[in-house]
Amino acid sequence: MNGLLSLALQGAGQSFWFPEQASTVAGRIDAVFYFILWVSIISFVGVVGVTLWFAWKYRARPGHSAVKTSSHDNTLEVTWTIIPTILVAGMFWVGFKGFLDLRNAPEGSYQVNVTAQKWSWEFQYPNGHLSPELHSWVGQPTRLLMTSTDVLHSLYIPSFRVKQDVVPGRYTSLWWEATKPGVYNLFCTEYCGDQHSAMITKCVVHESKEAFDAWMEKDADIIGNSPSLVAAGETLYNRKGCTQCHLTTAETLKGPGFLVLSKAWADGKALPLDGGGSVMPDENYVRESILVPGAKIRDGFKGVNMPAYQGRIKDDELGAISLYIQSLATDGN
C-alpha cells in the first residue's frame, strides 16, 4: 500500500491529467487519483493478461481431450477476495480522509460569501464589497459559503482541486489555501441553462495580504477610480452580470438590447410592456428594472427571470449605469 502511494505521489507532480497544482490540497487529491489509476491499470493488465494467456495455452487442439478439473479452489477464492478488498478499502480510506479534511476549514480562515445565479457569480467579502471575480492571497486559508438564487450550480477551481455544488435555499461550503500567486479559472460544472458555458470567471491569488488589500481599496471604489461616470457605468455593466443577458446593441440575448432602450430614451418614445401598456424610459425605469426586475416587463421578454439587485447595488452605481445606457445612443451606434 505504501509503495503504491509513493508511486502515486510521484505521479501527482505530472501535468498530463491535471492543470498545475496551486493549493495545499491539490497534491493529496492528485495522489488519490494516481493511486486509484495505477491500481486499476495493474489490475486490468494482470487480469486481461492472465485471461489471454490461459485462453491461448488451453485452447482446443486436435488430439487433446478436456481434462477434468475441480469445481473450486478455496485458496484461490480467498486470495481473489482478500486482495481486492484490501485495495478497495485503501481507496476508500484515502478518499474519505481527504473528504473529511476538505469539509472543515482551519480556524482563522478568510470567509467569502458566494451567490450563484444564471449565469454569473457574485463574491461578497467581509467588508461588504462585491466582486464578479474571487480574490484571495497566498498562504491564507479561504472558505466559501455558497448559495444559489435560482437553480443548482457547482463551483469548481481545477488548479485548487476543489469542487462543490451550490444549492438554492441552503448553504454549502468549501475551502482551500493557495500556494502560489496567479489567475486561475473558476467554472460552473452543473448544467444550469442555455448560457451555462458562459458561467466562467477568475480566481485571483495575490502574492500577499498587502497586495490583496491594495486591490480591495482600489476595486471597492469603482466610481472614484473611473475617469467618468459613464466609464464607471460601463465597468459596472461588465462586472454586475449584465453581460450575461443584455448586449449593448439592438440585438437580444436573454434580455433586451440596451441600444434599443437608449435610443427610445433619447427620442422620448415609450416602450411596450408585456400584457399591454407602455413605459417611458428614464432613470427611474432603469433603477426599478434593476432593483425589481418583474415590476415592468418589456413586451416579448416574459419568463426571463432576471435576479433582483435590491440591496446588492449602491445608488451612485445605479446612476452610473443609467448614464452609460444613455450614452449608447450618442456613441455612434
UniProtKB/TrEMBL annotation:
Principal cellular location given in the protein's record: membrane
GO MF annotation: an example: cytochrome-c oxidase activity
One cellular component (GO) term of this entry: plasma membrane
Subcellular location: Cell membrane; Membrane
Role summary: Subunits I and II form the functional core of the enzyme complex. Electrons originating in cytochrome c are transferred via heme a and Cu(A) to the binuclear center formed by heme a3 and Cu(B).
Residues covered by the Cytochrome oxidase subunit II transmembrane region profile domain: 10-106
Cofactor, free-text remark: Binds a copper A center.
PANTHER family: CYTOCHROME C OXIDASE SUBUNIT 2 (PTHR22888:SF9), CYTOCHROME C OXIDASE, SUBUNIT II (PTHR22888)
Domain Cytochrome c per the UniProt entry, residue ranges: 228-329
Reactions mediated catalytically: 4 Fe(II)-[cytochrome c] + O2 + 8 H(+)(in) = 4 Fe(III)-[cytochrome c] + 2 H2O + 4 H(+)(out)
Name used for this protein in its record: Cytochrome c oxidase subunit 2
Superkingdom as given in the UniProt entry: Bacteria
Membrane topology type: Multi-pass membrane protein
Assigned protein family: Belongs to the cytochrome c oxidase subunit 2 family.
Name of encoding gene: ctaC
Cofactor(s), by name: Cu cation
EC number: 7.1.1.9
GO biological process: ATP synthesis coupled electron transport
Enzyme class, spelled out: translocase
